[in-house]
Amino acid sequence: MSPEAFAHVSNLVIPTATVIYALAMMSHALEWAMGRGVTATAAAEQPAEVLVASSAAGTQDVAVPAAGGATAAAGSFTGEGGSARAEAASRIGLMLTWLAFVLHLTGVVTRGLAAGRVPWGNMYEFSITASLAVAAVYLLFVHRYKLQWLGLGVTLVVAAVLGLATLALYTPAGPLVPALHSYWLVIHVSAAAISGGAFTIGALVSILYLVKSRAERRVLAGGTMSASLKRLPSAEAMDGTAYKVLAFAFPLWTFGVLVAGPIWAEYAWGRYWGWDPKEVWSLVTWVVYAAYLHARATAGWRGRRAATIAIVGWFVFIFNFVGVNLLVSGLHSYAGV
């Protein structure tokens, strides 16, 4: 096939994948909608979870099973609050996500074949590649940790990024600017994309942690919990899952961005570090996630404090990815639209 044919295939399958991700999102939204209401009796049937406030931290939340109960496993997405229809919607959403992922991967690969290089030389290409990494990390952790309960957030993010890339960031396939001609491009950008995907998953898990922990406290105060939230793992389990994901991403970001990046900068511009806005915000991103891991390891920060840092870190990463490229002038401006 000619480069033009590969470009045509990519331009066709990327929007198609966007639509299928959107259908998967609708399926997961239906799954959640089916469990919005629950009676007090149904809530009482769920094994109670007791939130113990740490006397040292003051805001540390740890879920422990009450007598006769059991805390949900990190990957659990079944339970008394589930329904057959909700489970069916979950399975359909996951199958649609797999289909969209295959098309998405095809679009990224054919984009690279059309350009005759790795497909992340501009904002459009990095957007479709980074969103592919989000979907890949999610599907990997679904297989390993049963994270299909995260499907709504993941498909929403991926569909939104692909839609924005297609409608606002599209650039025809073409050659790279001279500064990008290096094998360090592959190492640096691929590591940033994969770790960015993991950062996104960690942030989504942290957001759901905050929602679930609040619902658990409400149940202890005599309130009720919706069936959709009952089907989520315990808050404690989600806190541990977020930590695993971010612990995976942090060393990858460290090597790919703060080691491979400066080496590439020396090759391209003759210096390892120049305080370019992209370099500064990459360092800020690293500092936030380093603080997250350090606080958990030394000060025992878990629960709401850790989740808040993880969410802040994701917003810093997003600003580094979008805001710096589009709003700030620097040596990395070639990565803009």
TrEMBL record:
The chain crosses the membrane at residues 6-26, 92-114, 126-142, 149-171, 183-211, 245-265, 280-299, 306-328. Its main location: membrane. Residues 120-332 form the Cytochrome c assembly protein domain. InterPro entries: Cyt_c_assembly, Cyt_c_biogenesis_CcsA, Cyt_c_biogenesis_CcsA/CcmC. It is a multi-pass membrane protein. Signal peptide: none annotated. It is found in: Membrane. Pfam families: Cytochrom_C_asm. Keywords: Cytochrome c-type biogenesis, Membrane, Transmembrane, Transmembrane helix. PANTHER family: CYTOCHROME B_B6 PROTEIN-RELATED, HEME EXPORTER PROTEIN C. This is Cytochrome c-type biogenesis protein CcsB. It comes from Kribbella orskensis.
